[in-house]
Amino acid sequence: MASGIFFNCTYIQFIVILTIYYSYQGLAFESINSPPRNTSAENLLKQCYNSQFQPNGTLFGDYMNGQPTRSLYLHRVWWSTKRAVFPLSFFTITDLKRITALQEQCKSLPGGTVAAAIWLPLSLNGVPEGVDAAAAAEAAKLGPGLSAVHVHIVENATALLDEVFAQNEAAANTSCALRLLLLYEIVVQEALAVLMPINIMRNAALIATDSDLVAMLDVDLSANKDLAGLVMRSPQRVTEMVFRAERQHVAWILPAWDVSRSVPSLKRNSVADEALSVSSKEKYRLEEMWKTKKQLFPFALERGYVLGHNATNYDRWFTAQEHYGIEYEEGYEPWFIASRFLTPFFDARFRGYYMNKIVAVRSATRFLNMRVLPDVWIVHRPHEVQVANFGWLEAQKNMKNKQQVMMALDEPMVINGTMTTARDAFFKRNLYFYRIAVSQMNAFNYTPVLDVAVENCRKVLPWWQHRAS
Ligand SMILES: *[C@@H]1O[C@H](CO)[C@@H](O)[C@H](O)[C@H]1NC(C)=O
Ligand SMILES: *[C@@H]1O[C@H](CO)[C@@H](O)[C@H](O)[C@H]1NC(C)=O
Ligand SMILES: *[C@@H]1O[C@H](CO)[C@@H](O)[C@H](O)[C@H]1NC(C)=O
Ligand SMILES: *[C@@H]1O[C@H](CO)[C@@H](O)[C@H](O)[C@H]1NC(C)=O
Ligand SMILES: *[C@@H]1O[C@H](CO)[C@@H](O)[C@H](O)[C@H]1NC(C)=O
Ligand SMILES: *[C@@H]1O[C@H](CO)[C@@H](O)[C@H](O)[C@H]1NC(C)=O
Is 78 strand, coil or helix? Predict the structure, then answer.
C-alpha cells in the first residue's frame, strides 16, 4: 500500500516535469508562430450556435424534464486551413483531461479531418455574491455568463487548446486537419459538472464537419494506418464508399478492438500501436493477438458485453476480402462511417456516460444498411499517460477537487417530492429516455430531441444545405 502511494507520487512528479517541459516547448513555439485559421468558418459556427445561448445556467430539473440545456456557449473555434485530401471526418467529444487521446486520434487520420467538441463545465457554486465590479466586467468581456472565478479556467483552457492546435498544424501532413470547438457550460447544480451533455456535444462536433463521409468515434479510438494511408487514397474506394453511403444508405462498420486488461498498464499503448500499424493484408495478425497472445479483444468482449459487437462477426472478418452485409442484433453498438447527411443527430436529452449512444445507433440501423469494411478497424487507446492536462488541473484549483465533484452526485436532492441522489436520478432518467425512444422507434415515430443551437446551425450553415443533385 505504502509503496503504491510512493510510486504514484513519483509517477505524478514525473508527469508534471514532462508536462512543464512540453508546455514550455509548445508555448515557446506558439508565441513565435501562431498558425493561420479559417476565421470565416469559425465565425459562422459561433454565430449560429451562440445566438441560442442563455446565460442563466443549466438546472438539474431541466435535464430531468428532457429539456436540452441552452447554457452551453461556443467560446472559441480553431478551424485548420489544411486542405483535406479525402472526404472523411471523424467527429468526437472530450473534456480537457483526454486531450492527448484526441491528438492521437488526429494522427491516425492524416489527410482527413477531425472535429472535436471540448466541454468545460463551470459551476455557479462558490461564486461569491457582490464581487468587485471591475472583476465582474472583466469576466463579462471574456464571455457571457462568466463570473470572475471562471476567468482563469477559461483562459487556461484556451491557452492549452492554442498549444494543441499549433502543435497539430506544425505536424503538417502527418496529422489530420483539426477543428476544435471549446464550449463552456454554466451549471447551477454541482452534479451537472460530472454529467457531460454528451449528445449535445456530439451534435456540435457533427455540425463542424463538411465532408461527404463522417464517423462519430469516441475520443480514445484511433484508426488503423491503412484507412488514411491506403483505403481513402484510392479514388475507386472513395467513390464507392461515398456512392453507396449516399445512394444505398450504407453504414460502413468499423470493427473495434480493446487492449486486454491482462496487459500491464505501461505496455497497453504499445499493444494498441501495434494493432493500429498491422497492414490490412496481414490482418490475421490481429487474430493472433486476440486468440493466441490474448493481448487484444473485440471491443467490450473481455468485459462480458458480447452483444455490443458480435454482429460485426469477427471470424468472418478475418478472412473477408470484400465488405459484407450484416443484420442488427439487439444491443449492437458499432462505430461506422456514413454519409454526413444521413448520419443521425444524437438525442440531446441524455447527459453522462450511460445509454447515450445506443439510441442513435439503434435508430440509424433502421434506415442504414450495415456493411463491414474488410481492411479498416479502430483500436481503443488505454488512458494511462495523460500528459497535457496539467495546466487545466492547476486551473481547477479554484473548483472543488475531483473526488468532491464526484461526491456531488451523491448529495441528497428532492425530485418530484421524493428524496433521492443525483446519481440515482441520473441512472433512472437516462434509462427512461432510452425506453421511451425505443418504444417510439418500434412504432416508427421516433425523432431525436435536438437542442436549438444545433437545429439553428443546421438550418443556416452553408455546408449543411443539401446539395441539389
Ligand atoms: C433563463 O433565461 C431565459 C431568458 O431570459 C428565461 O426564459 C428562462 O426562463 C430562464 N431559465 C431559468 C432556468 O431561469
Ligand atoms: C473556410 O471554410 C469555409 C467553409 O467550409 C470554406 O468554404 C472556405 O473555403 C475555407 N477557407 C479557407 C481559407 O480554408
Ligand atoms: C507529406 O509531405 C511530404 C513532403 O512534402 C511528402 O514527401 C509525403 O509524401 C507526404 N505524405 C503524405 C502521406 O501525403
Ligand atoms: C453472434 O453472431 C453470430 C454470427 O453472426 C451468431 O451466430 C450468434 O448467434 C451471435 N451470438 C449471440 C450471443 O448473439
Ligand atoms: C494554466 O494555469 C497554470 C497555473 O496558473 C499555469 O501554470 C499554466 O501554465 C497554465 N497553462 C496554460 C496552457 O496556460
Ligand atoms: C414526476 O411524477 C409524475 C407523476 O407521477 C410523473 O409523470 C413524472 O414523470 C415524474 N417526473 C420525474 C422527473 O420523475
Answer: strand
Pocket perturbation via mutation, ligand 6, pick of 416, 424, 426, 429 by most ligand atoms within 8 A of CB: 416
Cell output for 231: 483505403
Extract the runs of DSSP E, i.e. beta strands, from 352-457.
Answer: 369-372, 378-380, 412-415, 418-421
What span, in angstroms and rounded, lies between the C-alpha atoms of 98 and 76? 18
**Residue 407 identity (one-letter amino acid):** M
Residue having the nearest C-alpha atom to atom 2 of ligand 6? 416
Q: Tell me how far apart the terminal alpha carbons of the chain are, to the nearest angstrom.
A: 66
Q: Whose CA is nearest to atom 10 of ligand 4?
A: 310
Q: Residue 20: nearest ligand to its CA? A: 5
Looking at residue 171, its amino acid is A
Cα pseudo-dihedral 183, 185, 186, 189, rounded to 10: -160
Mean pLDDT of 29-56: 87
For residue 58, report the distance from its CA to the centre of ligand 6, in Å: 20
Write the CB contacts of 264 (distance below 8 Å, at least 6 apart in sequence).
none
- 252-303 residue pLDDT tens: 999 999 999 999 988 999 999 999 999 999 999 999 999 999 999 999 888 8
Pair 195, 63: CB distance under 8 Å: yes
**pLDDT digits 0-9 by tens, 236-256:** 999 999 999 999 999 999 999
Nearest Cα neighbor of 222 from 254, 252, 174 is 254
Query: Within 6 Å (CB) of ligand 2, which residues are found?
Result: 38, 40-41, 81, 210, 463
What is the residue-wise DSSP string for 170-234? HTGGGSPEEEEEEEEEEESSGGGGGS--HHHHHHHHHHT--SSEEEE--TTEEE-HHHHHTGGG-
The CA 81 to ligand 2 mean position distance, Å, reads: 7
What is the residue-wise DSSP string for 27-59? HHHHHH----B-HHHHHHHHHHHHTT--TT-B-
Of the listed ligands, the closest to the CA of 157 is 5
User: Cell 439510441 identifies what position?
Assistant: 359
C-alpha 421 – ligand 1 centre gap (Å): 25
- For residue 156, pLDDT over 60 is answered with yes
Residues 6+ apart with CB under 8 A from 254: 215, 223, 334, 335, 336, 337, 373, 376, 377, 378
Selection from 416, 432, 219, 248 nearest residue 342 by Cα: 248
Nearest ligand for residue 83 CA: 2
388-443 per-position pLDDT tens digit: 333 334 334 444 455 555 577 777 888 888 888 888 888 888 888 889 988 888 88
Q: How far apart are CA 401 and CA 242, in angstroms?
A: 47
